[in-house]
Write a structure and sequence with these properties.
heterodimer, A: 218 residues, alpha/beta, 3-stranded parallel β-sheet, globular, B: 263 residues, 12 helices
Chain lengths: 218, 263
């Protein structure tokens, strides 16, 4: 679904509409944060972020200036000249986040971006994402297997059935107040309430997926 | 292991080899010394000859010729390999059509081409450059081809999502990826450029290291042959060190071999 929204994949049936107009080719209005490492390993953190502005025709000096600013915002000011292999998994994700956000896309597509990270880093990244999002509210499509992460971050949780041929089986609004803190929001009673409600519909799908030996989508 | 100890051990191996060689040729252990010295010469004679070659200055001209041939063969071979590697990797049809011909051409022993090249390009340096070219071209070609085709699909998708056009993709993604593969084969391809040059000289020329060795062989001058081989080895080690230096500068972004960048 994310790849279809990004224009990387043609939908097998139907059409993708972005803000009301049909999508042809790559989605230029979207930024995509991949699950895997997608940074260019031969570029430093700074070059990786700055290069994202080249297609927009921004001069190199200006791009580097902006890239520095974004790396500072994601907390990597001290690591601008590191190559990706010298960074930790969480730091690489933050560079990728800066790389995506520097282009100021209207839609953010995120494919389990924090999946490979450990629990603590995940929480820090979640809060970072919430902060950045709060500063400049964009449409975010965030795919995750982690129900708690989904509730803590989202306004709306859409549950998908077990693949193949996954479809939408439920939609739940999340009324938790903002600004949120990933660690604290989990302690609120309404969090548990929503969790229980969504889990009820998710559970059978998870069991189905286990039976098939595949992963489920939440 | 610390560096001093390593160098000491490396030195010891060389010295041990020379010592065994010396003992076997200086004393009549397996055969009379006249015989062993005719077939194997002696380390002192060989080293003395190497010293004489360098001090008399005669070898420098030959070394220069061989170096020029090696560098030209490498530059032409690498450029051709990069060009065609890119082209074939980006144009599936081209690669599929030419595949059997490329394999056939690559499987051909280059030595049989040497006389043809001598006929076409004369006995000067160009026939040797051509021979080196046929060796270097295929190594670089296959590596660049592989490099461009095996660019990580995620990195590529990400670059496309950043809005890069074909030219920018080429510059920021395909080119560095191909370069990495090329450099991983740099030691081999420089070595083969030298092989092409020396074999070409050996088979027909009037200058160069290969010519020197051939000249000594044709009069059963074993000392001369070994001296030529020693000089060739020194030459190879120096070139290889230079390549390592270039590689370190250009591939700074690569993780050290012990860590594979996952984490």
């Amino acid at each position: 679904m994310l790849n279809a929204s990004a224009g990387l994949l043609k939908p097998s049936d139907g059409e993708v509409e972005i803000f009301g107009s049909p999508l042809a080719g790559l989605n230029a209005r979207a930024g995509y944060l991949f699950q895997q490492d997608a940074l260019m390993p031969w570029k430093t953190a700074l070059q990786n972020v700055a290069v994202a502005l080249e297609p927009k025709g921004v001069s190199r000096a200006e791009a580097e200036l902006k890239a520095r600013e974004w790396l500072r915002r994601v907390g990597l000011a001290a690591f601008v000249d590191r190559y990706p292999h010298m960074l930790s998994g969480g730091q690489r994700k933050r560079v990728a986040l800066a790389q995506m956000l520097i282009r100021d896309p209207e839609i953010l597509l995120m494919d389990e971006p924090f999946g490979p990270l450990d629990a603590q880093t995940r929480q820090i990244m979640g809060n970072l994402l919430l902060d950045l999002w709060a500063a400049n509210r964009k449409a975010v499509l965030f795919v995750t297997h982690d129900l708690e992460e989904a509730i803590a971050l989202a306004d709306r949780v859409v549950v998908m059935s077990a693949g193949p041929a996954a479809r939408i089986i439920g939609e739940f609004p999340v009324m938790l107040p903002r600004p949120r803190d990933i660690a604290e929001v989990r302690l609120e009673p309404s969090f548990h309430h929503i969790h229980k409600e969504i889990w009820a519909s998710l559970r059978t799908e998870v069991q189905k997926a286990y039976a098939q030996g595949e992963g489920a989508s939440a | 292991m610390n560096r001093a100890k390593l160098i000491l051990l490396q030195f010891a191996v060389g010295l041990g080899f020379l010592l065994i060689w010396h003992i076997l040729t200086a004393y009549p252990i397996f055969a009379p010394t006249r015989q062993t010295q005719f077939f194997f010469s002696t380390p002192t004679d060989v080293l003395a000859r190497v010293w004489k070659e360098f001090s008399s200055g005669e070898i420098w001209g030959h070394l220069w010729i061989t170096l020029v041939e090696t560098v030209l063969a490498f530059v032409f071979g690498a450029c051709g390999g990069i060009l065609f590697g890119f082209l074939f990797a980006r144009r599936e049809l081209l690669a599929a059509v030419f595949d059997p011909y490329i394999k056939a051409a690559n499987a051909l022993p280059r030595v049989v081409l040497a006389p043809i090249f001598a006929l076409w390009f004369g006995l000067g340096i160009w026939s040797k450059v051509a021979l080196g070219f046929t060796l270097v071209f295929f190594i670089v070609f296959f590596n660049v081809y592989q490099g461009v085709r095996e660019v990580s699909p995620v990195v590529l998708a990400n670059a496309r999502m950043l809005g890069m056009n074909e030219r920018q993709l080429l510059r920021h993604v395909y080119w560095p990826a191909a370069l990495t593969w090329m450099f991983s084969s740099l030691h081999t391809s420089v070595g083969f450029a030298l092989v092409g040059a020396v074999v070409g000289e050996y088979l027909g020329s009037s200058a160069g290291l290969g010519y020197k060795i051939h000249e000594a062989e044709s009069v059963f001058d074993v000392t001369g042959v070994f001296a030529g081989m020693v000089i060739l080895s020194i030459f190879v080690i120096l070139i290889d060190a230079l390549v390592t230096l270039v590689e370190r500068r250009l591939l700074v972004w690569r993780p050290a071999p012990s860590t594979n960048g996952q984490g």
